[in-house]
Amino acid sequence: MKIVSLFSGAGGLDLGLQWAGHDIVWANDIFDAAIDTYKANIGDHINNQDICKVKLSSIPDCDAVVGGFPCQGFSMANMGRTLGDPRNQLYRQMVRIVREKQPRFFVGENVKGLLSLGKGKALEEIKHNFAQAGYRVHHHVVNAADYGVPQSRMRLLIIGIREDIANVSDILPIQTHADPAIAFKLKLKPWITVGEALAHFPEPTDDGEIPNHQCSQYKLRFNGHLGHRYIDPNRPAPTVTGRGDERGGVVVLHHPNNRRRMTARELAAVQSFPDDFVFSGAKTTAYRQIANAVPPLLGKAIGLMLAKANASVKLKKRKAA
Question: 29 is in which domain, residue-wise?
Fold first, then answer.
């Protein structure tokens, strides 16, 4: 499938979609370091123009539009979240592009906290806007750990199916992993633990031999708050989070040895990035790119979901405009 990617960041979602066999024909973001990372690892097809100023005619036609639209204003970690946060309005740019390009499918990815924003009114407004663009819209909450990511990461998927697609009513990524307590019963693989995911990394040094694997001198604290918790090496890691802009930093998790913080390289592994995926910019910039990414393995599951749905599409006659 030909896919347009919005709010692409460093390209976690797009990498997963490529793993699933898709072609990213156009991508967009405005974070310079993430764009450099994207170009170095994925391709030159990313555009750095403000999405609000992008002309629709410059975006190629496609089979699907995807985007993890900015979620800082939606996050459960943001105690001041409001419906009026200007960052919450960027999804309207995705609606604008979907309305014009009329892809068969769209997928929006966001934080679970969007479900309760405005007592559910924010999500209903978002779904209504996409429905008006000509789509049947569904939403599902998924855990990235259920798709092989060594991290418990609850995400909201908003999925649209164009109204003229007659035989696809709803779609959802196919689960591959589960809590070890029930995985055998479900005939699924057990969750990947953070200890397993990081076992092959040597202790970090400052020599730069392994990209993005430099030491952090931060003195650990253990107070129960996210970023200051004991990490169980036999479970998936807690959620990697970041505020996503210049106003705040990333919650850098403790290494499962609980003697130091993870390096950016290790945090990337927790997000399921491959070891040869190198992040541009300083250490703190790399942390930010990683924290705001969609885990590539979740992206692959989304890509396989889209491929399966697209292969079975039967179109009914569309009404004349």
Answer: 2-175+295-311
Length of the chain: 321
Tokens of 136: 């049947």
- 62 noted as active-site residue: no
Whole-structure pTM value: 0.93
- HEC letters along 133-156: CCEEEEEEEEEHHHHCCCECCEEE
Q: Per the domain annotation, does 45 fall within a domain?
A: yes
Specify the amino acid at residue 65: V
Question: Per DSSP, what are the bridge partners of residue 251?
Answer: 241
Cα 310 to the chain's mean position, in Å? 21
Host H or E run for residue 23:
strand 23-28
CA 19 to chain centre: 15
Catalytic residue among 52, 62, 71, 215: 71
For residue 286, which amino acid is it? Answer: A
C-alpha span between 77 and 5 (Å, rounded): 26
Rounded Cα distance, 172 and 190, in Å: 20
DSSP for 173-203 reads: PPP-EE-HHHHHHHT-EEPPPHHHHHTTPPP
Q: What is the DSSP letter of 10?
A: T
Q: How far apart are CA 112 and CA 152, in angstroms?
A: 12
| Integer Cα distance of 146 and 300 in angstroms | 12
Phi-psi region of 316 (alpha: psi -120 to 50; beta: other; left: phi over 0): beta
- List, for residues 251-306, the tens digit of each pLDDT value: 889 999 999 999 999 999 999 999 999 999 999 899 999 999 999 999 999 999 99
Establish if 303 belongs to a structural domain.
yes
What CATH number is given to the structural domain containing 127? 3.40.50.150
Tokens of 193: 């633990």
